[in-house]
Amino acid sequence: MSSANEWEETTRAKIENRRELVLSGTEISSRIQHGGLDEHIFDLKKLNFLEISNTCLTSINEKVGQLSHMVHLVCRDNQLDALPSSLVQLKLLKLLDVSNNKISVITSTVNELTNLESLDVSNNQIKELPILLVLNKLAIVNFAGNQLKSIESLFSTCFPNLSDINASRNIIEQFSGNVDQLKALKKLDLHENVISELPSELANCSKLKECLLLNNKFKDRRLDKLVKQCKTKAILDYVRVNGKKGTKDGSTSSSAKESKLTKEESLGKKKKNNDDNDPPSKVEKIMKILPIADLEAKNIVDVIVTKHTNNIRPYIVCCIVRNVDLEGGSNFKQFLSVQTKLHDSLCAKRTKATIATHDLAFIKTPVKFDAIPPAVLKIIPLGKHTEETALSLVSRLNKEADELRKKIKRSSLSGVHKPAPESTLLSEFIFAAKGWSKPMVDESTMILYDSFLPDFPIYLDLLKDKQLYPCLTNADDHVISFPPITNSNVSKISSKTKDVFIEVTSSTNLDICKQVMDALLKAMLDIKLGGQLLPNQGDDLKIGKMKLISECAVGVDQHVGVCMESDACSVIDTTCKAQAISDTDQQHYLTIQQVRVSDTDGNLKVLYPSRIDLRFVEKEIFVVRPLT
Predict the structure, then answer these.
(1) For the chain, how many helices (H) and strands (E)?
(2) CA distance 611 to 574
(3) What is the pTM for the complete model shown?
(4) Hey, which of 134-138, 312-316, 574-578, 586-590 has the most confident mean pLDDT?
(5) Could you tell me if residue 510 is inside a domain?
(6) 621 contacts 285 by C-beta, under 8 angstroms
(7) What is the rounded distance in angstroms from the CA atom of residue 168 to the CA atom of residue 182?
């Protein structure tokens, strides 16, 4: 007989003497909101795995310290603002995941968790790391998406097994040469910070195989270009010779360094500093906006939103990127990788927003964003050739995700090789979503595969108990997108795609849609999907009346007034900047066509990109906009 107010899941776990308990989704959240979390959970002394995720939980009861057999504690995607002090009693704890919460402080009590192997506090509000002592078993830390200015406390011999550090999307300005004390470091992810220089000692990390440093503020332009090519070995070789010297213990002896400069070196340094302050005409990357007003009707793609989406997934932003190059080199693979990384980071595992890309050649306008019953919604999922209902698809994905997630939990952090993925609907679906042509079973692929599975049920839960499912349909009523689950195989992009229709949808807010779209377009420009702008390139590429590239590269032509916007968003005289710009060795561009989103009565909801979108602080990026 269950105790008063004891949840069914708790009672069943007690009766069946379970070691694992998973509480996730809207139903659990509703119970917590009305009566709080069932405290009987903390009487299940034999639990070694507890997950409470995707709920409105604001705090963890101090009774959690009673779970002395706890090995894995997962409390991600909640509303937690602090961790309980009783965590120190969980002496067997190996994995602590409190990502996607509102935690602002991690206390030094974490030092008591001497068996801790993996710590994930990503996407919180942490401003400072505590002083960390000897955690001999710590192997993986994830501090991405916080407000950290430094991660120096990690650079110590106290962490002999620390192999994976993710501190991306913070405000880290620099780090010291003490990083070379991490003898086991294999992956260092510091992309999207404000780092200006790298210590030469970084090259002494002999096991470092992956160093992600995109979107920082490097003063050295050559280093910045190497970073954008994502070649870790080349970066380390360059940093070994040209990196910042004397950076042990976070100190820099700039005066001593200056005193050793010869006259010739000083002149060279002065020249370099002048280069860093080049006038705006020395642009390297250009985004040109194609306004709807200057397009022929046949080239305009409109999106109509129905009222049925209001309580399901009300927010959508769309645009078209023209004349992309997905055939060259590894462009197609990089484009898929960019989407995956944005889904994992800014989109918070697709729970905040979802990206979908389509080959424009298969889009029939007007596109409709609607919400319809799951038994009525039919789609040919990515990688498939047979149409099925959303009800059937989601049901099978939920079942397989649950089964496979359980297998991964048992082997998580065990060091045991994962088996090759079985031929299931979910495995085929994931390979298609990743853009993999066939199931590969090498170690790196399996790591990606396994990391994808635990997150899959998170955004499946967004559809739980929904009477209607969101979808985008062509003018012929064929579904081309079913967010946040899958695109249609009919409109999928390929290496042959030339024009890409992009949608970002969200159930959270419109701002996150725009942030994600801005980030995706910037990434497309960074990996040079638009191609290279050559001096004196003509206006041979046109869409209706609109020139894709004006005759003088960046300037005013007969159809478009131009405003080039720098980090200060100042309007620059563009009467004729062609000669100055053509002096740049390489310039890369992206051509973006506006897409209008309206309701069924014709009222404008979103026009993207508008004049308030695509605001970048990078001096090398210029957005060429119509004046009206």
Answers:
(1) 13, 27
(2) 17
(3) 0.50
(4) 312-316
(5) yes
(6) yes
(7) 18
